[in-house]
Write a structure and sequence with these properties.
heterodimer; A: alpha/beta; globular; B: alpha/beta; five-stranded parallel sheet; 13 helices; 18 strands; 29% helix
Chain lengths: 162, 421
């Protein structure tokens, strides 16, 4: 599986309140959440984002609230993968559980810039910045998480086991 | 190699003799929690399960606290969904308006969680129950749904940072100042993926409410959990609030920690976190002249009776400054009643404050105190991110109930000592 798209770049500590402000949490519909994705940090994101695009950020992406609405909004906005130096732990779990691919790769997160075209090979964890001609090796998921992803998410895995 | 306190609880719940940092385990859960924002997503996920029943109707808690009493039609629909689910599945611990409180103030008070237990909650501040010597951590709605059906959750066993607490707090220094100081020191990702274990002779000088506040904000340093040892105060609290049997765990003497810090309570000053991160801390003497428009006293961090008592002590026979809106929110119905019985509600109202029914409300910019562009609030809540309490150009300064109450009177961020207290 591969993803390829244009990069939307953010800094450190992007919190779940700016990913999807609480004033929109009275909805749990992915399409509706997507309309307000990143609104408090990047108003124009929803107009710029195209299906398959990639989000890149620095450290502690997704910190703050446990709202699963955050990865749901990002996924529903069309983003195919988030690359960051590090992720906040609840966001990390939530992204895997809902099937939003995420990769920790400090080198890639630092070097890749907004507007770059980036391709990701999920099987190898390789990240290619086609604009800059650079490549990075992202952290592969531990086997336990690969099992969840291969099953099609946490619930599918539990259903398969029972 | 020895285990940390967290690792011991996890090992016991995974049926293992021992565990070590990095190990992936599946642990039994004693409590699974969600609120009116996260439960509807989990209930929707439940529909995908082959098995459509909860693992134990007594071990699921659903608390309607975020947008309640409902602020709009969509929130009302969410609560209706959870209400119907609770009825269909015969959930014992469903807390609706009239019985509810802010979840992390409510659950310990109701005795639903005790030392040695494990809890996951679809709310990031679930880490609060570490104050009781339990392992508790925030998760998302899918994890919550899975926990509700299976009674289990997978965890990567965390390593830990040890905070050795010594000394005694000065007047007007509280648990809030302790945790803001620590977050300022290690940063908002300083404990990422790890446990924060608090130990030391100074723990006895922290009240249970101080400990709830400290454990509550472990997530603001990125931690998986924050945890306190069980001492006489903890046992007293649990005996007063719960009939459940509890288990005391202690870290092994040879447990390994990634880092160790000593926190001398006697050196701490009232501390304020500036916008827009909890790590942007300054002590009260470094704050400068910052005029405010709003004060919020409440939340899962500081909505307990001792918080209300401190704020009332400062506001008694004084009045809020012109142009400052003061919103006091008791954490639970019991706190609300106690405030009435002790005359605190009257003190607040006479001081020009409003006293609300329990709700998370303004903490996350939901309702009951949303701010306009350019406005500033001193708040006893836990997050001061961009737009957290309303407009993206509004600002939240995090502080203790003492600083919030004093600021309400002066109209700028202030220490109670500025009032001659």
């Amino acid at each position: 599986m591969r993803a390829c798209g244009t990069v939307h770049k953010y800094g450190d500590n992007v919190d779940t309140d700016v990913i999807i402000p609480a004033r929109y949490l009275n909805s749990s519909d992915p399409a509706e959440l997507a309309k307000s994705c990143m609104e408090d940090i990047d108003k124009d994101f929803v107009n710029r984002v195209k299906p398959g695009d990639i989000m890149v950020a620095n450290k502690n992406f997704g910190c703050g609230s446990s709202r699963e609405h955050a990865p749901i909004a990002i996924k529903a906005s069309g983003i195919s993968c988030v690359i960051a130096e590090t992720f906040a732990r609840i966001f990390y779990r939530n992204a895997i559980n809902i099937g939003l691919p995420i990769i920790e790769c400090p080198e890639a997160a630092k070097a890749i810039e907004a507007g770059d075209t980036v391709e990701i090979d999920f099987d190898s964890g390789m990240i290619y910045d086609k604009t800059k001609g650079l490549e990075f090796k992202g952290q592969a998921f531990p086997p336990f998480m690969q099992e969840i992803i291969k099953s099609g998410g946490l619930i599918a895995r539990i259903n398969a086991k029972n | 190699m020895g285990m940390t306190m967290t690792q011991k609880i996890l090992a016991a719940h995974a049926g293992l003799e021992s565990v070590s940092a990095g190990q992936l385990i599946e642990a039994d859960l004693d409590l699974v929690l969600a609120n009116d924002v996260t439960a509807p997503v989990a209930i929707h996920e439940m529909e995908k399960f082959n098995k459509k029943e909860v693992f134990d109707k007594d071990k699921v808690a659903l608390v309607m606290d975020h947008f309640t009493p409902n602020k709009d039609i969509k929130s009302a629909e969410h609560c209706k969904c959870v209400r119907e689910f609770s009825k269909d599945y015969d959930i014992t611990n469903f807390f609706d308006v009239g019985a509810m409180g802010i979840e992390h103030a409510l659950l310990p008070e109701k005795g639903l969680i005790v030392a040695g237990e494990t809890c996951i909650g679809a709310d990031s501040h679930t880490c609060t129950y570490g104050a009781l010597g339990a392992f508790s951590t925030g998760v998302g709605s899918t994890d919550m749904a899975a926990g509700m059906v299976t009674g289990k959750a997978w965890f990567k066993v965390p390593s830990a940072i040890k905070f050795n607490i010594v000394g005694e707090k000065a007047k007007w220094v509280s648990g809030k100042d302790v945790i803001l100081h620590i977050i300022g020191m290690i940063g908002v990702d300083g404990a990422l993926y790890r446990s924060m274990e608090f130990v030391g002779e100074g723990i006895k000088n922290l009240t249970m409410d101080d400990r709830f506040t400290i454990a509550n904000m472990a997530i603001e340093a990125g931690a998986k959990n924050g945890i306190f040892p069980v001492d006489e105060l903890t046992e007293e609290y649990m005996k007063e609030h719960s009939t459940k049997a509890y288990t005391k765990y202690e870290a092994d003497a040879d447990a390994e920690y990634d880092e160790e810090y000593t926190i001398d309570l006697s050196t701490l000053k009232p501390t304020v976190a500036f916008p827009h991160l909890p790590e942007n801390t300054k002590t009260i003497d470094e704050v400068g002249d910052i005029k405010i428009d709003q004060v919020v006293i409440g939340s899962c961090t500081n909505g307990r009776i001792s918080d209300m008592r401190i704020a009332a002590e400062i506001m008694k026979d004084r009045h809020a400054a012109d142009g400052v809106r003061v919103i006091v929110i008791p954490g639970t119905q019991d706190v609300y009643l106690q405030m009435l019985n002790e005359g605190l509600t009257e003190i607040f109202i006479k001081a020009g404050a409003i006293v609300s029914t329990p709700t998370c409300g303004p903490c996350l910019g939901g309702h009951m105190g949303v701010m306009a562009a350019g406005e500033k609030a001193v708040s006893t809540t836990n997050r001061n991110f961009v737009g957290r309490m309303g407009h993206v150009d509004s600002e939240v300064y995090l502080a203790s109930p003492a600083v919030a109450a004093a600021s309400a009177i002066t109209g700028k961020i202030s220490c109670p000592c500025e009032l001659g207290l």
